[in-house]
Amino acid sequence: MNWSDLYWQRITPLHVILWPLSLFFIAIIALKQLLYRRNILRSVRLPIPVIIVDSITVGDSGKTSLIIWLINSLKLYGLHPGIISQGFSENYGPPLPVTTSSKLSEVGSKSLLLAYQSKGTCPIWIGYDRIKVAQALLAAHPECNVLICDDALLDFRLHRDVEIVVVDNSKHNFGNGLVLPAGPLRDSLSRLNKVDGIVMNEKSSKLVIDTKNHVRTFHMKPESECFVNLLDPDKRSTTAAFKDKPIHVITDFSHAQSFLEQVRYLKLNVKSHTYLDNFQFPKEQLQTQGDEIILMREEDAVKYLKSASEQFWVLHEEIAIDIGLREVILKKLREKFMDPKLLDILVCPLCKGPLVYKKSEQELICKADRLAYPIRDGIPVMLEEEARELPAEEEV
Ligand SMILES: [Zn+2]
User: Where are the transmembrane segments (predicted)?
Assistant: First the structure.
């Protein structure tokens, strides 16, 4: 347990002194929410549906895993998601696209991890002003028809259609139960009653949080583990294949204990190298000999994308989430896609040209490519392989 965990878990005289500030903070959030609800302050509605994925406590809580799951689920239904995020906490910069070639110093490690794990299957943009970031993403990628926002639970300026909150069930829980700055909560727990879904990240958890009062709670669990090569993510290996190899585990101080426990549980022969948080090993210290391999957490490994060799591997966890969450999200999206105005702005994913909405056939037609994209169960399936080719004689 590091100092920040200790701070969030306890109530000391310092916490008591800070408590009035927490109450003030809650009052400000409630007031802002009320002003936006009464339309005294205007939130910005983007032309496409927005899904917020955030945590109610400080820290990540497993948002990245959930976002990757969400990208894959939405793409399976023929949707084209785009991701927006502030990127890192002190990012005051203009909108910026993120790919695995982006500079760590410009985009931060969390954005790089998202780019790495999503394998370039959807655009990711970061920046200080979420509205501008979303607009920049949509201008560059008009084929995107749903936005996932990695944070922004408390940024009421951005109108949202779905709110999903991830709760880390493994160690922090809700800490001392107080709101910032006296506790780790970013809003009062009653906020959980108003969101569309709560996802419990049950990473190696023995704790059980009472969620009886909170509707729509879904569970996210690690399903299986494997090794993924950092340079070539398509190269995968079972953990058993690494049992007899000398493995150098490199991890930062904050995550050393949990990561080493996880690796030792897999009965691997490891030598650990722990470094101070935010330190980066110089390239010359990362040389290996013979069949030695270097193993890292995915979150740390993305910092070494540019200096990695073939010997760099990450421990990847496949996760599983209750299927009900997908249904909750699709139900909300179906309601949005009932609006003909939204269907009118969708573009062809191939030529990025306009589409003609044929209500009776429930199809969106691209005249240029002579393709008819089906609207199935209320969701436009914007996939070339699912589209109907228009015969020469069919009028559009
Ligand atoms: Zn087209």
Answer: 16-35
Whole-number Å distance between alpha carbons of 98 and 107: 7
Domain CATH for 143: 3.40.50
The answer to whether 248 touches 292, Cβ cutoff 8 Å, is: yes
Could you give the C-alpha distances from 186 to 17, 127, 190, in angstroms and in order? Answer: 18, 21, 12
Asked whether residue 65 is domain-assigned, the answer is yes
- Give tens-digit pLDDT for 359-380: 999 999 999 999 999 999 999 9
Lowest mean pLDDT among 102-106, 252-256, 379-383: 252-256
Specify if 55 maps to a domain. Answer: yes
Please give the distance, rounded to the nearest whole angstrom, from the Cα atom of residue 375 to the centre of ligand 1.
16
d(CA 18, CA 32): 21
Domain span at 37:
3-221
Give CA–CA dist 341/338, Å, rounded: 9
Q: How far is the CA of 354 from the centre of ligand 1 (A)?
A: 8
Whether 294 and 364 map to the same domain: the answer is: no
- Cα of 394 vs its chain's centroid, Å: 43
pLDDT band with cut points at 50, 70 and 90 for residue 205: very low
Ligand 1 mean position to 360 CA, how many Å?
A: 21
Residue 53 Cα to ligand 1 midpoint, Å, equals: 31
Q: What is the Cα–Cα distance from 85 to 98, expressed in whole angstroms?
A: 10
- Ligand 1 center to residue 348 CA distance, Å? 4
The answer on 215 and 256 residing in a single domain is: no
CA of 341 to the centre of ligand 1 (A): 19
Q: Within this chain, do residues 93 and 211 fall inside the same structural domain, yes or no?
A: yes
Residues near ligand 1 ion, CB 5 Å cutoff: 348, 350-351, 353, 366, 368-369
Rounded Cα distance between 126 and 117, Å, is: 16
| Domain count along the chain | 3
CA of residue 82 to ligand 1 center, whole Å: 19
